[in-house]
Amino acid sequence: MVALPGRPALVGSAQRSARARLRGRWALAALAALTAAILAGCATTAPAAPAAQPTDSDGDQWVVVTFGGRDEQFDLALMDSLLETELAADEALTAPGIGGIDGNEVGDGVYDLYFVGDDAGEMWDALEPVFAAAPVPWTTVELRSSLDDPAPRVLTREG
Predict the structure, then answer these.
(1) Domain, as residue range, for 80
(2) How far is CA 5 from CA 9, 17, 19, in A?
(3) Which residues contact 118 (CB under 8 A, 6 or more apart)?
(4) Which tens digit of pLDDT belongs to each residue from 45-94?
């Protein structure tokens, strides 16, 4: 048995205990180093979903989907029921790179969803099956050549 200068010689369980403490210190040091590496940004993780790729053009054509015709204010529960539809609609446009959702507007018993991209007709072709399965039926769709289009093409559910 070898004793270090200034320290008594360890025997039996005391020696095992000292080794366990030493291993514990190394484990603690390794954990601290790993934590520091993660906090410093050295660790990488895969994204939860691929980021949508922007379209190559300025994307100034619009599709405005309107849910309305109600006498009372548009019910928040109905808006909530459309959330999954909105997400699916955005995916239907971003996946092929033809557009994306821009936002919504609520007021006077109407709920509008705005989509922007390169070709309003192509966007509606991708959006129509999504909104056909919506829990709330749309009332009108405007295909606009610009946001301020004075004469948009207006579609209704009747045709």
Answers:
(1) 61-156
(2) 9, 19, 18
(3) 55, 57, 59, 61, 98, 99
(4) 434 434 444 444 468 999 999 988 765 555 677 778 899 999 999 999 99
Place of tokens 């005391």: 14
**pLDDT, tens only, 125-141:** 999 999 999 998 999 99
24, 30 contact by CB (below 8 A): no
Considering the domain boundaries, does residue 145 fall inside one?
A: yes
Cβ–Cβ < 8 Å for 126, 93: yes
The structure's pTM equals 0.62
Q: What's residue 50's pLDDT?
A: 42
* Joined tokens for residue 59: 């994307």
Q: How many other CB atoms are there within 10 angstroms of residue 121's CB atom?
A: 10
| Domains contained in the chain, number | 2
